[in-house]
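Sample intake — SIS domain-containing protein
Collected from: Anaerosacchariphilus hominis
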Amino acid sequence: MKTESMMAAKGAYDIEAACITEMKEYFDEEQFAKAVELLAKAERIGTTGCGHSGIICQHLAHLLCCIERPARFISPAEAVHGATGFLQKGDVMVFASRGGKTKELLPILDICKAKGVSVISVTENMKSPLALAADAVLKQHVNRETDKYNAQGTTSTTALCMIFHALQAALIEETGYQAEQFALIHPGGAVGERLNHKAL
């Protein structure tokens, strides 16, 4: 293995660790509280994004289901072919787009507004269409990607994950979700074994 390769690998840890630390400087308590309130009250939650953002939005949908907030990832392609019918007035759609103007997402934004679906946007561009039209907007800060070309979706996905994990932690507190509830819906794997052993 090249020396440069090892240095790049170790440097990735430093870049992403710095990003998470810096993100606290951009944490807006008012906007975050709005987002948590919307998610806590919604009967249904959709998540959407393209590319790496979309993959992390799939992760968020699963996290929400794990605390019994009914959610599903709606792909941008399917969203404009009927899938937004999942969402009804008073529900929430979470958009993730680092630039905040991903063209595939803008028609979905229009649909949500027409249906009375609340919008939470996560973006680095606070002047973008997704940010300006959101009911709550959470800033995604990225120092740089981990590759030498600053081009691959690496640190940016970690930053998005961190925001979603913070939402999950807050929602557990806000809704009073209990480990016993999770034990019921998660009997599988080592986590399920640990939770259900305690429940007994």
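Post-analysis note: Strands lie at 45-49, 71-73, 92-96, 118-123, 136-139.
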